[in-house]
Amino acid sequence: MLLGHGFVDPRIAREARPIVVPTCEQWGFEGSGFGFQASFRPGPVTMTHLIQDADGWRMLVAGGEIADTPPFSRLGESAMVVKVEKPVKQFLKELMQFGFAHHSIAAYGDVRDDLEIFADQVGLAVCRI
What we know:
The chain has helices at 88-97, 112-122; strands at residues 2-4, 43-53, 56-66, 78-80, 82-84, 105-108, 125-128. It is α+β, with helices and mostly antiparallel strands. It has one domain (2-128): L-fucose Isomerase, Chain A, domain 3 (Alpha-Beta Barrel). Strands 2, 3, 5, 6 and 7 form a 5-stranded mixed sheet that branches. β2 (43-53) and β3 form a beta hairpin. The chain is globular and about 45 Å long.
């Protein structure tokens, strides 16, 4: 299960499930922001992130499928359950070995090839899981 904070495009939210405005991540902000809390509709998803350490910059590129799940109880976050393409233990082991222990960006759709082209253009090492 991935829990998200930040911006969620309401066009990829599950139909007939509430979209809550603003997000719970207020950090002292007063008023309404442009973020939403929502459940993502089933379909392909790409997970990515950038990190820098002593070995330089790396980009995570991973894919999966957002599962068709029953509604979550009030999580106060944007949420999705993602089925990854390999056994979960192997996926998590590779994720940790590459240094991506926390945070990723979830983009609805399969844009892994596009991300790899971008990474090549700007000289980033790609960690495809």
